[in-house]
Amino acid sequence: MSTDRKPARATLPPGRHLGPWLLSAAAFALVLALAGTIVFSQSPDEVRAILKEIEALRQGQAAIQKELQELKALLQRQPGAQPAPRPTSVGKNVLVAGRPFKGREDAPLTIVEFSDFQCPFCARYVTQTLPQIDREYIQTGKVKYVFRNLPLESIHKQAFKAAESAECALAQGRFWDMHARLFANQTKLMADQLQAHADALGLGAAFQRCLASGMQAAHVRQDVNDATQLGITGTPAFLVGRTKPGDPGIQVLAFISGAKPFAAFKDTLDQALASR
Length: 276
Fold this sequence. Notes:
- The protein is of the alpha+beta class.
- It has helices spanning 18-40, 44-77, 120-128, 130-138, 159-171, 175-184, 191-200, 204-213, 217-229, 262-274, and strands at 93-95, 101-102, 109-115, 143-149, 237-242, 249-257.
């Protein structure tokens, strides 16, 4: 009887995929390499530097886990994972007076956006879709674009204060500049970082007093309350209505939920313009 044996083949545990196994192996190899370096290093400074790198890796892993948890919660709030918007949002009157806007005040249509400065979907909309709406509808005088706040405080802990900072910038006529900075720096929304954004815009001590006093919180809270009354629970969310010069609000014609592509906005806006 032959005594030849086939070489043993490495197998993965049942139900396991190769990707995570490889990642675990790579992580283990990294730890061994670092450990070997520590053992054979003769310099205490080098040992401390390596330990610092290990701690940074640990903190980075914790931050990634937190971001994944937030993303999961956000996805549950997006279209397809949440109930359809209440039909009562269409036909309702929505306040626009006193809120920051772009475009002609007497443009035939008004878009009201409810947004969250810490929301990644909102940032994607700002970079990918809003510039096209701006070029084709706002700059051409067809649309007045109004911004209102909807910080999702349960999952975005810095969003409410970021909204206050935008309102403080509005008081100095720099809302849209702050709007751009906040969405471009969503990982830098702590109080001292908000002040740094204001300093970069030259808003000075007046901004600092405004933000520290919380004097703009009531404006943010009013936006949140109005969104709740309209059945809006996720961001970004958009209401389209006819502009009525001199009227503090608009009557909603259409509701758009989520960071939709430009084509979805174009269809809704062109239909509304054609039916005037």
